[in-house]
Write the structure tokens for this entry.
Amino acid sequence: MAILEEVRKDYGVIPNYVDGNFVEAPADGYLDSYNPAKGEIIAKTPLTTKEGVDQAVQAAARAFEEWSQLPVTERIQYLVKLKLAVERHKEEIARIISQNMGKTIREARGEIRRALENVDAALGMPTITLGKKMIRVTSNIDEEYIREPLGVFAIVTPMNFPVMIPFWFLPYAIATGNTVVLKPSELDPAPMYWVMKVIHEEVGLPPGVVNLVNGAKDTVHSLITHKDVAGVTFVGSTPVAKIIYETASKAGKRVLAQGGAKNPEVVMPDANFERTVSNLLGSVYNMAGQRCLAAANIIVVGDIYDRFLNAFVEGAKKIKVGYGLDESVDMGPMASKKGKERVLHYIEKGLEEGAKLILDGRGFKSEEYPNGFFLGPSVFTEAREGMIITREEIFGPVAIIIRAEDFDEAVDLSNNLAPYGNAASIFTESGKYAREYALRVNAGNVGINIGVAAPLGYFPFGGRKLSFFGTLHGQMDAIDFFTDKKVVITRWW
Ligand code: NAD
């Protein structure tokens, strides 16, 4: 393949996928979807109307009747086909992700790999969802529980992992016998449209088991309050997660809502220096910082601070920014113009508050792609607790490097700089500090010498404080979310 080969130049108006057919969405309007490296429109996202949402939910509700009755051992055969089909098309799907979201092709390939891990994990559903039985709870009486699917699930996802995040839920939802209506981000709808095409052509799922509706806020509201939707999974920013949690709960749905992040990562003086620097550079700047597990506040303990800062900034300067489809590029553009403006706004705020911008990525210009939404890497120092830039999610290629006197201060800063609790990491060679950090930090995913603490599909995806609304988490926890336990008590005279 040529280095910059794009699967299509233009994806046109993205269709919905309803009842086993691609259909033109009944729409209230259309939003432009971009190639953010070129700053060119490559697709139109229809804003699906309430009627369009209803068609998809009705199709899913009809499909539920038979799909839920199919033995789980047969349902997972479709997952085998899904895995093989996506594998066959992984390169083209990765290229579409890069073209529509902006991340590098290497990151996009990694995204597909992480998406498919969830299919692997969901293949264990026959054993995972086995019921439990106690015989002779009293004479002649046995008691057991079985798990049952609930119906139609709405899956609402963000722009940063347009394929992986739908796969945090979709394989588990359908393997447990539910049916789904997926609403991807309006910013980059092309990758999931392509995955649906692959599903349509090569997986042969019964019509209505998986449906796709495109749109934004209003489409989401019609979906999550629809009378025939049993539950909602959401991943996105905290303000929206809160709205979804409140609105869908009020409408009587089960809700699992993962929000934004502001992850602290601690560097201890005994850390493996080179590996820590390179890990943290990757954590902050890969995907141009648009990752919910990215390092945001880097807390460096003790005398190592100057040496770390110097090496980190030198490393950041070497990052090659450009069109993600170019294999030599390390960091793509921001996914949207609005996202770029948000980062510029936060950099201004940081400067107003007195932090020092020792590496300024605002002026980055690509000669080849002058209209792209690019930013170079930035680094702030002299930021303090209470500042907006240490508290709020910037979601861009900006590192904030803070000095702490000792381990205890680093733990306090980790827990108090920001009201989020998605992830936290520590870099150290000391088992004692590693253990203590893991136990004392209030975050759902903890990394020990890991810059991006991303759990495998076989584990729940944590998240605390403002990073999560609900009880059960994604991935493996979603099996409890997608099923209900029914108790059967039996007496034979
Ligand atoms: P976003 O909140 O803007 O959008 C997410 C989804 O919500 C989209 O499908 C969008 O159409 C919909 N939406 C937006 N506004 C809405 C509203 N008012 N009412 C109903 N629906 C609405 O998020 P984004 O910019 O697409 O993604 C980035 C955010 O997602 C970051 O905050 C990031 O930290 C977070 N994220 C979190 C996790 C996690 O696991 N916790 C994972 C990935 C991304």
